[in-house]
Specification:
Elements lengths: L27 H10 L2 H5 L18 H19 L3 H10 L8 H13 L7 H12 L13 H7 L5 H6 L5 H4 L6 H24 L5 H4 L3 H13 L5 H30 L5 H6 L8 H19 L2 H23 L6 H4 L2 H4 L1 H11 L2 H12 L5
Helix pairs in contact: 1-4, 3-4, 3-10, 3-13, 4-7, 4-10, 5-16, 5-19, 7-10, 10-13, 10-15, 12-13, 16-19, 16-20
Bound molecules: magnesium ion.
């Protein structure tokens, strides 16, 4: 017997692009989750960066551990709101599959490279491209043939031009409708998870200090709660308690804000969700606190000179790889060369580069540009 969720949750799928018999012992969304976990793109996330380059330290988050943490946060909140936990988990695990090496700077520079050829690179679209086309593991179709609902969750935003090309999947952007609550939740769970684990990693890397963090209200409040209970607590353990408290309080706030919105907009069934404003949200007062933290991280962590230096290096590597592979298609591995006729040279190069892990990109760069032993 499959679990039933709330009436406003997704309880069944509209289906898959290539029709398949329903799974015997799993739900459709559990099948999606399992397909994602077994994909090559998912395994590559282990060696792709969030903020810190992968080989800088073994304890920093990578996109793989980030995706697992997003799924954990997503599942907890889905349980509390009686949403489809399996769908949330599938979307969370897949949400970063299309990311380039070296985090956001990789995406930005690859997009700039593509614009010279009148094209764009955007990691959401790339995640969709991976699960609908680039994964080659099934006899009968390209991609993973995921359900409509999982695909809708993966595509959290897209341009109107792309939306027009995407058919049913793009419709909600053209009609300005909200996606399912499960998709909304995966999006917020992503943000919640990265704010606090970037903070955690920033403290570990000594790019941030606990004293400096006290300027942020949500942190000040939680430090007060902790030191009241454990006045002696210092150093690493205080830092860990703080991150734990922050994640906890944010999860509670997100549940409370969303429950309030469910009532306020009288959300009873799935159709109500599409017409209403975003439901999975913090209360306005708490949203301001989360925003203050984001601004703090932007200024003090993401723009820290030591992160900027890594970013500079990463951008140069991607730019150099892109122009090398555009200058002569014979530099591309055979399986990519053969796709140029169908997909175009620039798109194939973007597929190849965005699929690289951090270390693979460095290795390719060295292979093409480093002169050793001279
Ligand atoms: Mg993410």
């Amino acid at each position: 017997m499959l679990q039933r969720f709330a009436e406003y949750a997704i309880n069944s799928s509209r289906g898959r692009f290539y029709p398949e018999a329903p799974p015997k012992f799993r739900s459709d969304f559990q099948r999606d989750r399992d397909r994602i976990i077994h994909s090559s793109a998912f395994r590559r996330l282990e060696y792709k960066t969030q903020v810190f380059i992968n080989h800088e330290g073994d304890l920093f988050r990578t996109r793989l551990t980030h995706s697992l943490e997003v799924a954990q946060v997503g599942r907890s909140i889905a349980n509390a709101l009686n949403l489809n936990v399996d769908l949330v988990e599938a979307i969370c695990l897949a949400h970063d599959l299309g990311h380039t090496p070296f985090g956001h700077s990789g995406q930005d520079v690859l997009n700039q490279c593509m614009m010279q050829y009148g094209e764009h690179f955007e990691h959401n679209m790339q995640s969709l491209r991976i699960v609908t086309k680039l994964e080659e593991r099934y006899a009968e179709f390209d991609g993973l043939n995921l359900t409509f609902e999982t695909l809708e969750g993966i595509l959290k935003h897209c341009s109107l031009d792309n939306a027009k090309r995407l058919g049913e999947l793009g419709e909600r952007f053209l009609n300005k409708r909200q996606p399912s609550l499960e998709a909304q939740l995966a999006n917020l769970a992503d943000e919640l998870a990265y704010n606090f684990h970037d903070l955690d990693d920033g403290l570990r890397a000594n790019l941030l200090s606990l004293e400096q963090l006290e300027e942020v209200q949500i942190i000040r409040e939680q430090l007060l709660v902790i030191t009241k209970k454990y006045p002696q607590l210092k150093g690493r353990r205080l830092h860990k308690e703080l991150v734990r408290h922050l994640i906890n309080v944010s999860i509670y706030e997100l549940i409370a804000g969303s429950e309030y919105n469910l009532q306020r907009y009288d959300i009873k069934v799935v159709d109500d969700v599409y017409q209403a404003p975003p439901i999975i949200r913090y209360h306005d007062e708490h949203f301001i606190l989360q925003n203050e933290l984001k601004k703090f991280l932007l200024k003090n962590l993401y723009k820290h000179y030591s992160v900027m230096q890594l970013r500079y290096k990463a951008e140069n590597v991607i730019r150099a790889l892109f122009s090398a592979f555009m200058s002569d298609e014979r530099l591309l591995p055979d399986q990519f060369q053969t796709r140029i006729a169908d997909d175009g040279h620039a798109r194939v190069v973007a597929d190849y580069i965005s699929g690289m892990t951090d270390r693979y990109a460095f290795r390719q760069y060295n292979r093409l540009f480093a002169v050793e032993g001279v």
